[in-house]
Amino acid sequence: MELQDIRRIRLYRQHLTDPADVETVIKDLCGIQAQIPTNVPHALTIRTGAPVDPETYGENLLKSWTIRGTIHDFHRDDLPLFKADPKMYHAGDWFGWGGDALSDEGRTMWAQFILEKVKGGMSLREELKEACMEKGMTEAEAECMFESWGGGLREMCERSFLCYKANSRREFMLCPDYTPMGVEAAEKVLLERYLRHYAPATLRDMAYYFGWNQTKCRTVMKTLDCEIHSVKADGKEYFRAGELPGDVPEIPDCIFLAGFDPLMMGYEKKDGFFVPAESLRGIFNLQGMVMAPVLLGGTVAARWKITGKKLTVTCFRELTEREKRAVTDAAELLFLKITKFEFV
Q1: 241-257 pLDDT per residue, tens
Q2: Which 3-state string (H, E, C) describes 285-296?
Q3: What are the respective helix, strand and coil percentages of the chain, to the nearest 5?
Q4: If we measure between CA atoms, which residue out of 270, 344, 274, 254 comes closest to residue 305?
Q5: Whole-structure pTM over 0.90, yes or no?
Q6: Residue 248 CB neighbours (<10 A)
Q7: CA-CA distance, 242 to 248, in Å (whole number)?
Q8: Do the beta carbons of residue 269 and residue 284 sit within 8 Å?
Q9: Whole-angstrom Cα distance, residue 245 to residue 298?
Q10: In this structure, what DSSP letter does residue 92 have?
Q11: pLDDT by residue (tens digit) across 28-75?
């Protein structure tokens, strides 16, 4: 198998050339990374073939910390999968986080206070913080509870008391009740989904995506009930589950991927499969951000950004006139409100 064949299959299985509805895409891709909320509607738009409304797309979705400990939008039916540990479910042990800023009693008290506020209808993060400060929370305690990477609010989500609503606001809700399926069972479901909708992929890719080591990936893969296929390409072994159609579509000339797009997050980034080595820092910067790529013929050649009504495409190499036309044609179809457009 040629590498370009693997690119075609990955694009197809990730619904970039096989459109599906929002719920199917979200489930198949094990959720979509959502540090920057506006990325999610775009990642869905390019996979559904229709504009996804940023205000309404999350009706059946939730947001919390899942794959690799990063925040994702996912379907509420998958709560037992992503919050799978029965020992963590509604655990009242609030010890062990926050350093010296909060006492054990303080952690418990503020968690209960916030939970009561959300039960009463308060949802926005800043509203909750203001209510805590009015109740007497100190600045040091607030920095711990409302820390930008999650803090105490994340702990409440990890224990399935709270979760974010899937929208552009930092808005919490009570986590729906469910029965955790158990960590080992969840790992099997997640790896099978990966092998059906991200693969063909190497063990190194699987390890990168899940944050496991390759030995664990191989061990879990051996426990799956589905048939696993393998193929060699460019001296590497690629694995997948499920059969492929006989007519996988060709790679589109141009795709405007989202920031933190599943096509970027699903595979070992340093292998240069989609992003050439010389362009790696143009997409994966040193601050942990994953920029929005422009895929040309299956390889990242630029990144894009919208400021107001202006679209800027930052090129990593000189584009041919045909490639520039493919970019502008794709942009005109996708970004209907853009009035200015430039290559840099």
Answers
A1: 999 888 999 999 999 99
A2: CCCCCECCEEEE
A3: 40, 20, 40
A4: 344
A5: yes
A6: 16
A7: 14
A8: yes
A9: 19
A10: -
A11: 999 999 989 999 999 999 999 999 999 899 899 999 999 999 999 999
